[in-house]
Amino acid sequence: MMPEAKYLLVGSSHAALEALRAIRLVDPDGSMAMLTKDERLPYSPTILPYVVSGRSGPDKVLLRDPAFFAANACTYVPNAQAVSLDAKARAVTLANGEVWRYQSLLVASGAQPAIPPVKGLDGVTYHVLRTLADAEGLRAAMGAAKSAVVLGAGLVGLHAAENLAEAGLKVSVVEMQDHVLPGYFDAKASTRIEEAFTKHGVDLKLRRKVVEVSGPAARVTLDDGNVLEADLLLVATGVRPVTDWLEGSGVAVDKGVVVDEAMRTNIDGVWAAGDVAQATDFASGKPALIGIIPTAVEQGKIAGQGMAGDSYRKDYAGGLPVNTYRFFGRVALSIGRAAATEGVEAVETDSGAYRRLVLEGNRLVGYASVDEPFDVGIMGELIRRRIDLTECKDAFLAWPVETGRRLMSEQWR
């Protein structure tokens, strides 16, 4: 007997869990299964730094327990890696040879580390940080190491660098761009973050490329001839959607799985959501990958509603990047086009804390801050509703949070 499910969800993180919830609101009884290549119950990749640091045990970071799946009549199948899709037969084949039939399929297979084509990298032992097993492996390796090199100064790389430094290792971070977190913050905001890392003994090698890596542990040669020696090497140079199992299925893949405003793919009966999905970017209106939890949750909900035929389903309005980054007890936030420089007006204040407001035609399109938290929900609404700030612009620039709240309370009345 071939296993089958009316609703088959491939993936087990935020997008798949939200789809499950949306489906069950409409169809409490339709058979459902969630397949994951992971061996654990669902967890969020964002908590992995806390496992690395030891602040949280691996069993404390799970998003759902077995009782949840029992209550929602969903079969949870771990160690189930999808390797191919036959869209005509509506069947997914797993690595162990098992074949699952479905009526409606959600592709929520997420992303995996993107490994750069560096000479010698495949000949040395290196770590990545994307799964709970990765986090446990990195934590174990830290215990025996005195020094570390981190490739990449994005969120994953910097979280790990902080954990490694706090554990007493001598840490170097290599980044090709001219500042850290280049996708989320402008250079001035990044400078504040960089200063905190330098103060805590982390050596930042910006505007540098790795040309070669060799053993026995890790000997990292940079493009300026400098050589970094370390016991531990972490590769954190970004991620890419897991789409290889869709090859030959007919599902359209560009940078990720191409979806419409209902999260449908080009193949009947197949939806996609989360880090694997290439949906519309709110600011540009063009297709983009936005790998953050709020996006995954929203896309998962819309996909689930579509799969279950929910008449209340709304179209996806486009992804808006939102990032909260905590470092050494401090916080940096960004939303929208916070790092934009062209065709916009950027207003910066740098008195103790830093903030940067980005406007286009007197409408807010981005906001970033360091050491000065703001209401991300309110600012997100101002951006999404394209509120004209002309009449209160001076007040908004001086007191963005208070003025934003007043504006939105008037909108919501």
UniProtKB/TrEMBL annotation:
Keywords: FAD, Flavoprotein
Protein name: NADH dependent phenylglyoxylate
Origin species: Paramagnetospirillum caucaseum
Family statement drawn from the similarity comment of this UniProt entry: Belongs to the FAD-dependent oxidoreductase family.
Residue ranges annotated for the FAD/NAD(P)-binding domain, each copy included: 6-300
Molecular functions per Gene Ontology: oxidoreductase activity
Listed InterPro entries: FAD-bd_OxRdtase, FAD/NAD-bd_sf, FAD/NAD-binding_dom, PadH
Cofactor(s), names only, from the UniProt record: FAD
